[in-house]
Design brief:
- The chain has a single domain, classed as Hotdog Thioesterase (Thiol Ester Dehydrase, Chain A).
- Helices cover about 30% and strands about 35% of the residues.
- The longest helix has 13 residues.
- It comes from Pleionea mediterranea.
- This is Acyl-coenzyme A thioesterase PaaI-like protein.
- Pfam families: DUF4442.
Length: about 160
Amino acid sequence: MRRKLSPNWLKRILNVWPPFLGAGIKVLTISENWDYAKVRLKKGLLNTNYFGTAYGGSLFSMTDPFYVLMLTNQLGRNYIVWDKGASIKYISPGRSHVYCEFRLTKQQVDEIRRHADINEKYEPEFEVDIIDESGELVAKVFKKLHIKRKAKKAD
């Protein structure tokens, strides 16, 4: 039987994971009940573009796994949760460190569970704002997930 990682352990692992470490991405917090996470992209030499602003790929990467990880842990082992699609809309140049926050309400999780239990699949969409240190909006990321209840095993 596979043991479940605590939010604190997952945060530690993600903070040394090469794609995040190399891009300057740091997970600042993941709440104990998996309903909140905050991530920072520290602007530096390795994630700055030709114009001296945050590299778009790093902005996009900082939003990648969080809703999937949060929902996987909230819904439990009876559900399959995958990223289905994502897009990014750049609003203003990221000239400083940038941050994003991920939130899930109990109502959202209950609704997702209800839809996944009734339908063959459910594909909710989430919007994540990336903001700079002064609170200016840098980009919006749109995430679409695929959630499905696992088939019950025959006895």
